[in-house]
Design goal:
The chain is an alpha/beta fold and 242 residues long. It has a single domain, classed as Rossmann fold (3-Layer(aba) Sandwich). Helix content is 41%, strand content 17%. Strands 3-2-1-4-5-6-7 form a seven-stranded parallel β-sheet, with helices on both faces. The termini are far apart. The protein binds NADP nicotinamide-adenine-dinucleotide phosphate. The site of NADP nicotinamide-adenine-dinucleotide phosphate (NAP) has 29 residues, from helix 1, strand 2 and helix 4.
């Protein structure tokens, strides 16, 4: 396969790092993005990837980053995101302004990066390009504004797949359950909490970033071209397909 140009948002840590590593190992040229320059540069050095630092929720920052992003994009992995409820103090009961701020934060962090980065790179997508966006089991299971933000991406994914389908471009969501060894939980959960959540999985364990990377890599391949507009679940059976 010719060397592909792959962009992984949030590629400096966790799932994004494992995804970037998977494509680098296949011989692709990988660009990783994120806000923290040092984290990104260190990851890029380890990986043999290209770092481009910007805040993917900020339209002007995305636009400014275009000069450093590849001119042709074969695979875009919209991975940047997270649950802002894990780093903010919960609003007090009845604090509607605080509640609105908390919802806005999760919607901005999870919806804006895929929407803005995909729109910005649209003119650069190669024929048969692949877009893979990291959703979450929370879109089905709940989890407040975080789950709602990931559910919003599922509707956006359908529109994206429909709009780009005639160019052979696919757009899919990979929706993981609990994945260990990332910065997602920001140290806010104990091993007991993780175990209680993974108790719902048929295989009684958390997933790994490498397992998510394997599915993303497949969806990024030419063989996966007839899969589009879909949500693919990766959760050990904690949520079954429907
Ligand atoms: N871990 C899980 O259990 C789990 C389960 C389901 C879905 N997910 C999803 O998987 C994706 C990756 O999460 P993870 O678990 O690997 O956690 P993570 O290690 O915290 O990765 C998130 C990455 O996104 C980057 N990022 C965050 N906000 C950004 C912004 N505004 N602009 C640019 N980059 C930004 C972060 O880097 P900077 O902070 O430097 O910007 C970081 O590298 C997320 O979309 C998350 O919702 C995770």
């Amino acid at each position: 396969m010719a060397q592909r140009e792959v962009v992984v948002t949030g590629g400096g840590t966790g799932i994004g790092y494992a995804v970037a590593e998977r494509f680098v190992k296949a011989g692709d040229r990988v660009t990783i993005t994120g806000r923290r320059e040092q984290v990104l540069t260190e990851a890029a050095t380890l990986l043999g990837a290209v770092p481009v630092a910007f805040d993917a929720t900020d339209p002007a920052a995305v636009e400014n980053a275009l000069g450093a992003l590849p001119e042709r994009v074969d695979v875009l992995v919209n991975n940047a995101g997270g649950n802002t409820d894990r780093i903010r103090q919960a609003p007090a009961e009845g604090d509607l302004a605080g509640l609105a701020d908390a919802w806005r934060a999760n919607l901005e962090l999870n919806v804006y990066p895929p929407v803005l980065v995909t729109a910005a790179l649209k003119p650069r997508f190669a024929e048969n390009a692949r877009i893979v966006t990291i959703g979450s089991i929370a879109a089905k299971a709940g989890s407040g504004s975080y789950g709602a933000s990931k559910a919003a991406l599922e509707a956006w994914n359908v529109d994206t797949a429909r709009a780009l389908g005639e160019r052979g471009i696919s757009s899919n969501i990979v929706a993981p359950g609990v994945i260990k060894d990332t910065e997602f939980f920001h140290g806010t959960v104990t091993e007991e909490w993780i175990q209680s959540r993974v108790g719902a999985a048929f295989n009684k364990r958390a997933g790994t970033p490498e397992e998510v990377a394997g599915l993303v890599f497949f969806l990024g391949s030419p063989e996966a071209g007839h899969i589009t507009g879909q949500v693919l679940h990766l959760n050990g059976g904690a949520h079954t397909a429907n």
